[in-house]
Amino acid sequence: MIALQELIKETLTRVWHVPILRVLSVSPARYADIRDRLTKLKGFPPGDGTISTELRTLRLKNLIEQQPQPNTRRKAWALTDLGRTTLRLVDQFEGLTNPDKVQAEERRFGMSMDELQARAAAIDPTVPHPARRYDYLLGGKDNFAADRESAHEIEAVMPTVRLAALENRGFLQRAVKFLATQGVTQFLDVGTGIPTSPNTHEVAQAINPASRVVYVDNDPIVLSHARALLMSAPGGKTAYIDADLRDPGSILNSPQLRSTLDLSQPVGLLLVAVLHFIRDDEDPTSIATALIDALPPDSWVVVSHATFDHLPSDMLSKVEAPNRDGRFRARSRDELAGLLQGLDLVAPGIQSVAQWWAEQAPQPRPASEDVAIYGAVGRVMNS
Ligand SMILES: C[S@@+](CC[C@H](N)C(=O)[O-])C[C@H]1O[C@@H](n2cnc3c(N)ncnc32)[C@H](O)[C@@H]1O
Fold it and tell me: Using one digit for the tens of pLDDT, what is the confidence trace for 85-140?
């Protein structure tokens, strides 16, 4: 497989590649429609044979594919997942010719443009990633076949996993709203995920437009989206750190964090559906403690975490099976309580995310065993 960075460079050098990808991003199209749309887009028609050659090349690179059309035996050309991702990255890099904009981007993400491009292009479509699998479960489009397969494996043993993803997302939004109503205006959202509206800054800024949010994730696909989508409302501020939760120092010492949050004022730390990707031998307690201890007085912590506590015993051996890379570690209530030492949990304490601030959620609430995720919100006890 050709590396994504090479693919982007090559795509940019071919006159008709990007225009074809762009017209197909609107909707699948047959040859004659592609020709018409290209003529409109560029203001002149492509030369004879050009489209056929370009379509062949794009198909060989797995950027486009032929799809059956309803009510006809003819097929239309459409973008593949890789084609959509490549086009998004091309769009981001192509627009950056102005040196001031380049510098602003470099400051925003704390890395050089070369590093930024290399990181964004490090997306590996062949290996399932938690962010893309979660995006698929939530009904998003930023995922690849490997992510969907992995989601289907989980769904085969836990048929309600999509509901669980939606409930987790609902919990995050309710918890941010709760903190914002308590006067919290600064958030550190670790394990952001692919942007899903409303995102943390949108929920917080709906209550206080001056809210500031620092997002952190270690997946290059999240970085590529964050560059385009995590734009703050005027009056507030957002920043993004490409960092690994397993190295909390890289988050706490990041210039983006220091220039966005005032660490003398309370912060809401979000560790939502991320700690279960930290294995026991990576010491999740020390990681959580390092972040919690660095928070200013009167700060808050929001956590959600997968659990098998509510599952019937015949399901337990099956739900472990899809955990092929050993990255995923569900934890019991007691284990989660151990990670949350030093927090004064608000009612209802450690509880299914479906039951947390349940009166603010759509009714009726699903059963805890169909969700299998604990949520908790606590105030940092200052010693
Ligand atoms: C299931 S998604 C949760 C997204 C969001 N927090 C939510 O609950 O809606 C988990 C996210 O954690 C990120 N993640 C997993 N391990 C991580 C690590 N060690 N450091 C930073 N992010 C990580 C994944 O890339 C993914 O975006």
Answer: 888 888 777 666 678 878 888 888 888 888 887 887 788 888 899 999 999 999 99
Tally of CA atoms within 13 A in the half-sphere of 132 that contains its CB? 25
Structure tokens at 253: 């010492």
pTM: 0.88
54 CA to centre of ligand 1 in angstroms? 38
147 CB less than 6 Å from ligand 1? Answer: no
Among 90, 108, 128, give the residue marking a domain's end: 90
What is the CA(31)–ligand 1 centre distance, in A? 41
Domain with 62 in it: what CATH number?
A: 1.10.10.10
Pair (280, 183) in one structural domain: yes
Closest protein CA for atom 12 of ligand 1: 191
**Within this chain, do residues 240 and 318 fall inside the same structural domain, yes or no?**
yes
Ligand 1 atom closest to the CA of 129, numbered from 1: 25
Atom of ligand 1 nearest to the CA of 138: 9
Claim to verify: residue 185 and residue 86 sit in the same structural domain: no
| CATH number of the domain residue 183 falls in | 3.40.50.150
Cα distances (Å, whole numbers) of residue 250 to 257, 258, 262, 294: 10, 12, 17, 13
State the total domains in the chain. 2
Least confident of 84-93, 123-132, 295-304, 307-316: 84-93
Domain, as residue range, for 20: 4-90
Most informative mutation of 202, 219, 269 for ligand 1 (most atoms within 8 A of CB):
219
Instruction: Report the atom number in ligand 1 closest to the C-alpha of 270.
Output: 6
Averaged over 324-333, what is the pLDDT?
A: 86
Q: Which atom of ligand 1 is nearest to the CA of 219?
A: 25
